[in-house]
Amino acid sequence: MSDESRNATGSVGGDNDAQETREWMDALSAVIEANGPERAHELLEQLLEHARQSSIDMPFSATTGYVNTLEPGEQARSPGNLELEGRLRAYMRWNAMALVVKANRLDPADGGDLGGHISSFQSLAHMFAAGFNHFWHAESEGHGGDLLYIQGHSAPGIYARAFLEGRLSEEQLLNFRQEVGGKGLSSYPHPKLMPDFWQFPTVSMGLGPLMAIYQARFLKYLHARGIADTSKRKVWVFCGDGEMD
Fold this sequence. Notes:
Blueprint: H1 18-35, H2 37-53, H3 82-103, H4 119-135, E1 147-149, H5 155-164, H6 170-174, H7 207-224, E2 235-237, H8 241-244
Parallel strand pairs: 1-2
């Protein structure tokens, strides 16, 4: 790339007045430093609105460059033991994979036909761990409890965590997708089959996001009507390709 194609701002293309551009950028940087990003955002919004009112064409793009929402220095330190949490996640990922594999070895002559999903939880393990360890509230005297819509295919990982917590037995894990005898685990989140374990059904795909939206609206309705104090409660929903396709 030639030197002529670069201007003083470090950008590429035809800037007719690089010095003026640099001055605007320096001014914005000074606002951020003196008054914070909120004030800078406010100024930019007002400038954009003024540009629209002045009939300046504002091109729209639904795609923007990815920029992390938090600088590393602005991120809060984790209150947990990162090494210990990492080991626990490794156990959960292994057990989640193992219970699916073991279930499908019951009838090797048939190739194993119980099915199950291995990769879904593997990609969600960090998010679930952060939520369970540091964010989500159980029901208590001072809190109504958060509501979780778990991505259906990641159910083996939730079972794996419950096993480490002592809430599920090894026998139950070995009976994954074999709940007819009363000691198994349902394929997906299923409050009717496991009423003491799951809050909401999230399979067939698409149920979770829709129900979560209306659940959140209903919580706001209860609060606005003074029927229940739901101000501390949050609705969390996890979506995968099955929900978003």
